[in-house]
Amino acid sequence: MNEEKAVEKEEEEEGPFRPARLIISGIIFVVGMALKLFGNISQTWILAVIFGVAYIIIGFDVLWGAVKNIIHGELFDECFLMALATIGAWAIGEFAEAAAVMLFYQLGEFVCDSAVDKSRYLIADLMELQPEYARVLYDGKEVCVDPKEVNVGDVIAVYPGEKIPLDGVVEEGETRVDSSALTGESRPAGKSVGDEVLSGTVNLYAVIKVRVTSVYDESTVARVLSLIENSSEKKAKTEKFITKFSKIYTPCVIAGAVLLCLVPTLIFKGDFKEWLYRALEFLVVSCPCAIVVSVPLSFFGGIGAASRNGVLIKGANYIEALAKAETVVFDKTGTLTKGTFEVSSIETDGTDKDALLEIAAYAESFSDHPIGQSIVASYGKEIDKSRVTNGKTIAGKGIYAEVDGRAVYVGGEKLLIDLGVKIPDGGDVSSVAYVVADGKYIGKIVVSDTIKDDSAAAIAEMRKLGVKKTVMLTGDSRNIADSVGRQLNIDEVKAELLPDEKVKEVERLLEEKSKDASVVFVGDGINDAPVIMRADVGVAMGALGSAAAIEAADVVLTDDDPMKLAGAIKTAKKTLKIAKENIFAAIGVKILILILSALGIANMWIAIFGDVGVLILAVLNALRALKK
């Protein structure tokens, strides 16, 4: 069902012009109450007509809905309860109460629908960057077409202030893009020739030309929109409980109302009108709409709040699982570390450190290996190509080059063994590039995979949120893994693992967890797809542009900030807390007023508060989940 049809269906179900009907019916009701209290009217039929008009204007769609549901075999719903209670009140001459019940019921429904719309629109804000057109270049001319008509390989122009309509690579121009709607990242990112740009982001400063790399249906913005639209289909256990509860609860309260009316009348010879009135009060307050509506709204709001912060959660069931996270398992590279190497220390055998770094950088200027590139970057000066000759890569071992006429080797332990050079003593916790010049060892450069700035803070925050155990699984060496684990204060570190061994480790943790607790795994979303799918909650970090990541993961973090996971857990806990507050508060108030109604202590007006008032309060409480 498309969005327009869905809106039309909702409008049809809730009745046309509800706000106008609320106002008109409300004015007529107030006039009727004023005449009843101060008008000294002796003819009852006048009040019956006034309240009857107010009742029909605001309640005809509820009555018609009850009739349609009865025809379709759906007897025990809130429309039936409202119709039964108000028609019964009308039958015993309580015209004002009948109109009031219907009026305030519709007011509560209007507040609820407005809250749902607000949450939907807040989520839709995320997707307002969905493009309306694409400027495709055909023979040098720009033609505006529907993004769905653009093919892979086409070149599109994007002007400043426009939405980038499709994923692609910048082919011409330089600008900055705002990706806040997709990633939650507030700082614009620079983009130049060769850089990837994602659909849904906004070009800020200059015209760029982008070569399209994916059709619209496979674009980032389309996949994210689909993910959000489908998120409400996966219900949490709490929601499922409420659905089952309502199906049992409604027939029970109707049976209770019938017994409340008949038993005192037939057995104890009570006044039929009095006990019918109590039964009607019982029906009014028994409507479970406060629970049925506010709980799903709480989860929907939590999903919306997370989406606006760059965390895409595929369903309410994952909100509940995140809230119960007991163990969080991390991949290392790209998750807790940046996945980029930096020179962390230089040790020499008598050679000046700057001279050692210079020699190594000149030799590595021939290499495209990440370690070699990090050495060149650390040197930071322009490489004079005339000083270095005969550069060649020694596969799997290192590199050779002649720098200022000196034979220079830079590489690992295997290279030193081949050269017959003694390996220096001392354990290494990172990747090491040994430097040999003219057959003599002159020093080593230690290169580390840099830990992300927020990794330690994110892990500390998760502990504050109730995560009892943190685990890191990596295929990297034991020394490197232990070093990262110590720096981040991770409880358990498993190193030198193959993908299937990571799965086995997660399965072990699943067996060890507490009942109703969950194990969360967070990785890059592609290499770790098997582990992501095995955990209770699989989280793909920084993988917005990856279809594989979005497909495999239950939660997608749109950038590589580990704090977003801590934020997601916090949002999940808040959402679950709000849902439980609504359940306990609504049930508690209703049970109290049901008892008072049965005892004849509560009147119809208190019953109305027990239904509509609790609904409004529950909905307003649920809206707190929308806060970012």
Task: Tell me the distance between the termini.
Answer: 29 Å
Largest sheet: 7 strands, mixed
The count of DSSP E runs of length 2 or more, i.e. the number of strands, is 22
Beta-strand level of the residues, as a percent range?
Answer: 15-25%
- Give the low-confidence spans: 1-16
Task: Estimate the helix proportion, in percent.
Answer: 40-55%
Outline: elongated
Provide the number of structural domains.
4
Strand sequence of the main sheet, in spatial order? 10-22-21-20-11-18-19
Structural class: alpha+beta
**Average pLDDT for all residues:** 80
What features would you highlight for this structure?
628 residues; alpha+beta; Calcium-transporting ATPase, cytoplasmic transduction domain A; Rossmann fold; 4 domains; seven-stranded mixed β-sheet; 22 strands; elongated; disordered N terminus
